């Protein structure tokens, strides 16, 4: 550690709800290869109705020699859990990772190194498919991984892999919206709020996390429902601009029709699924323009 590098702690936040996979997540956090000036502390926000896993999670952290705090944030509302992490954080920067993900050894250091001049840094997520449960077309299409291309909006990431300037969030009074806590997309709207308040974003491809694709998510029905809900949240984001509801609906209708035709003439199952998924997203925008209720993915 040089004289110009003051000792810094980063709070790593994990929101959990009855997932045993959190043990693997914690182990990957304990294995982080950090520069001398960086330290980490883990904040686990348990979104279950009771604090029944307190001892289990605490024992796991102790066995891994992880500095940690356990927060009970009932119940089954992911926004409440994310806000509990923010409320209990004391570090200037916080990182979020999902409770079924594992981080590569250089994950936290890579996010931290990309911070200069930014208020938020995203990293990629690599999906791990089980060929016994995931169909071939899904594996070939890699529908569950997430990265960010050069044409993608800089704020279009998620809380499954991100580092956030907590002081910026605190200064602007930003919160994850509890009305979206059983719907999903609360992180999308949170990052839009950051953008509206002048935040600057970055994407660091070296900050990789991996996530196994659960059997319940390895099918077309789940994929289309997820994209449809994403479209509903996208409609909310579009409403923040100057476009009218009629304009948004018209564009979405054209896109739905195009995707349906593209799916019909796709040369293989992967192409068909990709176009159906895009169509489902635009259908979410379209139905929301006509007042459809939000699909509660996590209810």
Description:
With 299 residues, the protein is an alpha/beta fold. The protein has helices at 22-30, 54-63, 78-88, 107-113, 136-141, 166-171, 186-196, 220-238, 245-264, 269-289; strands at residues 8-16, 38-46, 68-72, 93-97, 102-103, 120-122, 125-128, 161-165, 201-203, 209-212. It is built from ten helices and ten strands. The strands form two sheets. Strands 3-2-1-4-8-6-9 form a seven-stranded mixed beta sheet, sandwiched between helices. It starts with 7 loop residues before the first strand and ends in a 10-residue tail after the last helix. The longest helix has 21 residues, at 269-289. The protein is globular and about 55 Å long. Helix 8 (220-238) packs parallel to helix 10 (269-289) and helix 9 packs antiparallel against helix 10. The protein folds into two domains: 8-217, Spore Coat Polysaccharide Biosynthesis Protein SpsA, Chain A, CATH 3.90.550; 220-289. Helices cover 40% and strands 16% of the residues. Strand 1 (8-16), helix 1 (22-30) and strand 2 (38-46) form a beta-alpha-beta unit.
